[in-house]
Specification:
By secondary structure, the chain is an all-alpha fold. 82% of the residues lie in helices and 0% in strands. The chain is elongated and about 65 Å long. The relative contact order is 0.07.
């Protein structure tokens, strides 16, 4: 997770950078950026840094598609969901 990576970075660099004024303030602000939903920091770092480093982009896209499908089936009535699924399938068949 992003928080685990932040902890590892802080733990490794603490011996060297811990004496620099503002190091812990920077760590606190970074944690706040990652935690607040209005910034979506953890999601951004996860998608832009960790997923490419791990080479898991295709799995992330598949997971997002499954999540969207589940949400669509939950929010729409069955007839409307079938129409929307066909429209989505046509969109992807064209490329």
């Amino acid at each position: 997770s992003v928080y685990g990576c932040l902890f590892l970075i802080m733990d490794v660099s603490e011996d060297f950078l811990g004496r620099i004024p503002g190091f812990y303030t920077l760590i606190i602000f970074t944690t706040i950026y990652l935690m607040l939903p209005m910034f979506r920091g953890a999601d951004k770092i996860f998608r832009k840094v960790l997923v490419p480093l791990a080479g898991l982009h295709e799995l992330l896209v598949l997971r997002d598609a499954i999540t969207i499908k589940k949400q669509m089936l939950k929010d729409l009535d069955p007839e409307r969901a079938a129409v929307v699924q066909k429209s989505i399938a046509k969109f992807f068949d064209g490329s």
